């Protein structure tokens, strides 16, 4: 365990703590086993207390401790290596104390593999600006702006469940994530919106850095070697802020690095912002890209050195009739389209799972037209299997030096 931090102190209204100089991550590890000669792409081995996985890899989102429409054992059968749950939602329902009492998220969910939780920081952004994903809105669709105030201490908001007042702080985020028991966890931060100006972005970044130091201190005090803490690079779309924040993360004893915050208003700008960060990452820690995960994104950012991705997209788009397809220029097809009404071919017969192999597109089209939940379940399974195939092939292509050829197979012109 790292050295004991000093007590926090206040100056000019800011809360400062001295972060620990080192932290022991005894049950975790990360090794680079192959590097691409033409890019920063790499294959790594990420060790956690619940298993070791190869990177690059994809982390599927179980927002409220549940992968929508797919059972945990089925996720395993589909060759999934790692999943995540959201700290904010688990805090609201059923609560971290109950999850801890029932054995932590792994036992609670029936998932015995590696797992990640976020810090709750994204929900500060989504509640404050009203840009809340469907998974976040739930039954509270018309009252998404429940965030009341962001202060130096933390974020104050009302629970969407019962309206009670909650102050989420770095210390509380670390406590909740410890009780949830995921292998990989995150510092508390604020995810700034694209439309805020540079002054606010810089102010927020420095506050997230102070929250990060407080997260490190709180984490170190309860650290038993079974969790790895990630620091988050902020700075919006501003290169000098991104460089500053990257150096801040590099200088702290985090287990991993994450690229977060606003990544811009276009695909081109997103690529530029991620590159700003990755050009300045030097330590061989696992690097995660928060909330990004289209097929084309995987190819783009793997080349920059990203090791893991997370996104709700594979299961979310399945609920709306979209199936991911290798070799489709647009990445996916809409199974609700009339052209699939009498299509007797399966989605992808070479994928060794029933959803991709054993049911015709015509039948799945019928299920969506009839409003049958099985259609959503089948597409969710198929999309998970497709992404897992993508990541296996990406890892092999990095080893073989054929990443460009593989991208053409997945995304032809």
If you had to describe this structure to a student in words, what would you say it looks like?
39% of the residues lie in helices and 18% in strands. By secondary structure, the chain is of the alpha/beta class. It folds into two domains: 56-311, Alpha-Beta Barrel (TIM Barrel), CATH 3.20.20.105; 323-410, no CATH class. The strands form five sheets. Strands 8-7-6-16-15-14-13-12 form an eight-stranded parallel sheet. Residues 1-6 and 131-144 have low confidence and may be disordered.
Can you describe this structure in just a few lines?
This protein is α/β, with parallel strands linked by helices and 413 residues long. Helices cover 39% and strands 18% of the residues. The strands form 5 sheets. The protein has an 8-stranded parallel β-sheet.
Can you tag this structure with a few keywords?
413 residues, disordered N terminus, TIM Barrel, alpha/beta, three-stranded antiparallel β-sheet
Q: What's the SSE blueprint?
A:
Layout lengths: L8 E3 L2 E3 L12 E7 L6 E7 L2 E5 L1 E5 L10 H6 L5 E3 L1 H6 L3 H6 L2 H6 L5 E3 L3 H9 L4 H4 L9 E4 L4 E4 L6 E4 L1 H11 L3 E3 L11 H25 L5 E6 L5 H12 L5 E4 L7 H12 L8 E3 L5 H8 L5 E4 L1 H6 L3 E3 L7 E3 L19 H4 L3 H9 L3 H28 L2 H8 L3
Parallel strand pairs: 6-7, 6-16, 7-8, 12-13, 13-14, 14-15, 15-16
Antiparallel strand pairs: 1-2, 3-4, 4-5, 9-10, 10-11, 17-18
Helix pairs in contact: 7-8, 8-9, 9-10, 14-15, 15-16
In angstroms, what is the radius of gyration?
21 Å
Task: Kindly report how far apart the N and C termini lie.
Answer: 52 Å
Which range best describes the helical content: under 10%, 10-25%, 25-40%, 40-55%, 55-70% or over 70%?
Answer: 25-40%
CATH superfamily of the largest domain: Queuine tRNA-ribosyltransferase-like
Q: Can you count the helices?
A: 16
**For the record, what CATH class of the largest domain applies?**
Alpha Beta
Mean pLDDT: 93
Q: Beta-strand percentage?
A: 15-25%
């Amino acid at each position: 365990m790292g050295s004991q931090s000093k007590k926090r102190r206040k100056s000019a209204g800011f809360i400062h703590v001295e972060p620990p100089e080192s932290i022991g991550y005894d049950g975790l590890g990360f090794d680079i086993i192959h590097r691409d000669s033409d890019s920063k792409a790499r294959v790594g081995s990420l060790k956690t207390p619940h298993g070791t996985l190869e990177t690059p890899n994809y982390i599927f989102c179980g927002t409220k401790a549940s992968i929508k429409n797919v059972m945990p054992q089925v996720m395993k059968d589909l060759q999934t290596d790692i999943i995540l749950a959201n700290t904010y939602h688990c805090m609201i329902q059923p609560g971290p104390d109950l999850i801890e009492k029932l054995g932590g998220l792994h036992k609670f969910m029936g998932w015995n593999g590696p797992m990640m939780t976020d810090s709750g920081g994204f929900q500060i952004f989504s509640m404050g600006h009203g840009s809340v994903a469907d998974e976040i809105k739930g039954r509270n669709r018309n009252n998404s702006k429940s965030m009341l105030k962001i202060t130096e201490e933390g974020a104050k908001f009302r629970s969407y469940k019962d309206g009670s007042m909650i102050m989420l702080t770095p210390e509380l985020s670390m406590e909740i994530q410890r009780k949830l028991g995921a292998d990989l966890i995150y510092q508390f931060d604020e995810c700034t919106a694209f439309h805020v100006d540079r002054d606010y972005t810089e102010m927020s970044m420095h506050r997230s850095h102070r929250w990060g130091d407080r997260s490190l201190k709180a984490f170190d005090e309860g650290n038993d070697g079974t969790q790895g803490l990630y620091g988050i690079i902020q700075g919006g779309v501003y290169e000098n802020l991104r460089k500053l924040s990257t150096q801040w993360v590099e200088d702290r004893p985090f287990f991993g690095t994450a690229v977060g915050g606003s990544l811009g208003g276009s695909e081109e700008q997103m690529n530029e912002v991620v590159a700003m960060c990755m050009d300045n990452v030097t330590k061989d820690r696992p690097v995660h890209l928060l909330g990004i995960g289209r097929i084309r994104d995987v190819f783009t950012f793997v080349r920059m050195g990203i090791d893991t991705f997370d996104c709700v997209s594979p299961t979310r788009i399945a609920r709306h009739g979209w199936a991911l397809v290798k070799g489709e220029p647009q990445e996916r097809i809409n199974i609700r389209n009339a052209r699939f009404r009498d299509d007797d071919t399966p989605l992808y017969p070479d994928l060794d799972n029933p959803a991709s192999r054993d049911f015709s597109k015509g039948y799945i089209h019928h299920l969506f037209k009839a409003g049958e939940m099985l259609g959503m379940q089948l597409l969710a399974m198929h999309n998970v299997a497709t992404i897992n195939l993508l990541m296996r092939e990406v890892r092999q292509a990095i080893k073989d030096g054929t990443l460009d050829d593989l991208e053409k197979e997945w995304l032809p012109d």
